[in-house]
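Hey forum,

I'm writing up a methods section and want to include a predicted complex as supplementary material. The small molecule is adenosine-5'-diphosphate. I've pasted the protein sequence and the SMILES. Can someone with a working setup run it? I'll credit the forum in the acknowledgements.
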Amino acid sequence: MTDTTAHDNSGPVLAADGKPLKVSLARALRRQKIRALLLIAPLLLFVLITFIVPIGDMLFRSVENQIVQETLPKTVVALQEWDSEAGTVPEEPVFAALAADMKIAVAEKTHTRLGTRLNYEMNGISSLFRKSGRGVKKWDLANDGPFKDKFIALDKKWADPEVWVTIKANSPKYTPGYFLNAVDMQVSPDGIEARPENQQIYVTLFKRTLMMSLMITGSCILLGYPIAWILANLPMRQANLLMILVLLPFWTSLLVRTSAWKVLLQQQGVINDLLVWIGLVDDANRLVMINNATGTIIAMTHILLPFMILPLYSVMQTIPETYLRAAKSLGATNWTAFWRVYFPQSIPGIGAGSILVFILAIGYYITPELVGGTKGVFISNRIAFHISTSLNWGLAAALGAILLAAVLILYYAYDKIVGIDNVKLG
Amino acid sequence: MADTANNDAFVEFERVQKSYDGETLVVKDLNLSMPKGEFLTMLGPSGSGKTTCLMMLAGFETATHGDIRLGGTSINNIPPHKRGIGMVFQNYALFPHMTIAENLSFPLEVRKIGKSEREAKVKRALDMVEMGTFGGRRPAQLSGGQQQRVALARALVFEPELVLMDEPLGALDKQLREKMQFEIKAIADNLGITVVYVTHDQTEALTMSDRVAVFQDGRIQQLAPPDQLYESPENSFVAQFIGENNTMEGVVTQISDGKALVQLDGGELIDCKPVNVTKVGERTRVSIRPERVEYNKERLHADAHTLKAEVLEFIYMGDIFRTRLRVAGNDEFIIKTRNAPDQTRLKPGEQIEIGWMPEDCHALDA
Ligand SMILES: Nc1ncnc2c1ncn2[C@@H]1O[C@H](COP(=O)(O)OP(=O)(O)O)[C@@H](O)[C@H]1O
Ligand SMILES: [Mg+2]
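Reply by user p_vandermeer:
Happy to help. Structure tokens for the complex are below, copy them as they are.
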């Protein structure tokens, strides 16, 4: 034994210069690490800007609620004294503060935005603010008081305690309101409660989105598995040809493909015509296959199928035929050999394909929009509506955040049940 | 036909042909008959159709023509899983998603054998290959040699009477391969199973087999026990393929009761044993093993024909000396001598005379 081994038992291993080996190693690796970091820095920045920041912004918007405090700062302070559960209208000081705030808001034209925002919580507030804005403009703050009666004269709604409850409830900087709204709940003077039945849409939509995405994933597995199997077992030339057919959808516009389904599936469409001609379906009862859930599932299965086939194919390609032969030589029938030996080894491909298809499906927008009708639209269509039509970005953000959470939870569940190591793209 | 068939025959190939593409025959007229308990090796260069024969026997390929019989009944129409033939694949084909014990249990499960009996059999099979403690591991956690043992145990665990092995030791290093050769042979003998073994390694074939079938180009060139194969090759392909050989070409000048005189192309005369030459004037290739060449005059017959030789190279190989000579214009003539205390070590440049017993020099087809 050499004398260096004597150090091993007495303390940390030392490098030739007497410094602990760990320190020397860390120093030796540091330069390398910095270089690596610099090399990926542009990419990292890009990902940060285009990916992390928008998601962060979305999460922030789903709870952010500064508009009430910013537009009506004095009123918010004055309302602190007021008991929102008493069922009475606030006293003069609050109205005076409101008048002062409104004066500034009108000058800056921010009161209509506030009205729009508060309208999400209570119908009619938007017009109340617009109307009051026009009135307040003419007032002289120093001499025209008291303002309580003047406000009520402008619009009777100011005498409605509900309006004040809404304003007070929304005065904190952050609100759970969007999230509650996104799960069909609301804050009322009695606490958190379900929205009126005719306004409950989001939970149904979430459930439908999840269910239909699962069904689409399921039908992609059913259709994709045999195709991938054929692809993996065909001789090279034929396999390549078939592969082109599988990839063909990628080369045609999504809109064209979706519209094609409209042509095929509508009641006067090709498939119904064919069924009627064969006699399977009565001419009077043609099948409704478009503008409903069926249409969405059919069209989206078609569109997402390649995302199932490709990972399945690449996994299946790595399973040598000798396994099946070995199983059969050991006495297994064709089915047993497939089910006990081949199938388990293809599960990583099913896993990868399912995750891809499911995550794509759950956020899909264009196809449900075109062929989904009312019964086949997804939550993403609602998000798009709130972003571009109703401009309720907070609610859109809350819906998006819930969708993101749902995907992450499912991903986690998948990891626990199947194991994420069991996902293979090739 | 039936009455002439060998009653002892367990595995029979009768006039079997196989073509994959309908244009070329990969197996041409294969006839083979094996008694129960025999260890038969198919030996031949790569592409000679060995695997194809094995696959036809296992049922993964169908014979284009001919009959394959197992225990007297034709198995042409029996699917692989009903043939009850154990098989060891070259890359082992252990199921990666199952543990070793599960792999061994698989053939028993598909045979609907009860749990306790299954466990007992799995344990016995694993113990037999000295892998008893590895039942809980996955194939990927084993070394090549260990996987090989498990593959063997799996092919044997359901007690098949016939076991096929396709180059089972091909992926192992030399030392391990030699160890496994002995183990496989010992296990096969112990269990009394019939084995068809495929290899392209002639040492393996010679050391393990009861009989060796030398394949070339879809035909069996010779089917014989190892010693016969080595000492009496029936044609020049077998002579070339098995072991090392010196060959010289010439013409038969005299032939009588088991002796032939061959005049080499350089004019020299040598004594030979005619193997597949029949008449005077026929061209022949004579073949002589390096260890049967003698240069010590005292050990040669007085009337033996000798050839002049020049020593070109002397290689010390430990147990033997390997000397390269120039003989009758052939620079690659090798002789091997045992490293014994009284052995003379030839030096390059030395002029010697060599000869041999006429029965060691085979006159084969040209
Ligand atoms: N599945 C197959 N399809 C077409 N040709 C094959 C197939 N398997 C083997 N061959 C051809 O048959 C010949 C014999 O092959 P094989 O039986 O594998 O030989 P070996 O096992 O002796 O090396 C080779 O020329 C090979 O190319
Ligand atoms: Mg082979």
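Some notes you might quote in the supplement: The two ends of chain B are 36 Å apart (CA to CA). Residues 68 and 331 of chain B are 47 Å apart (CA to CA).
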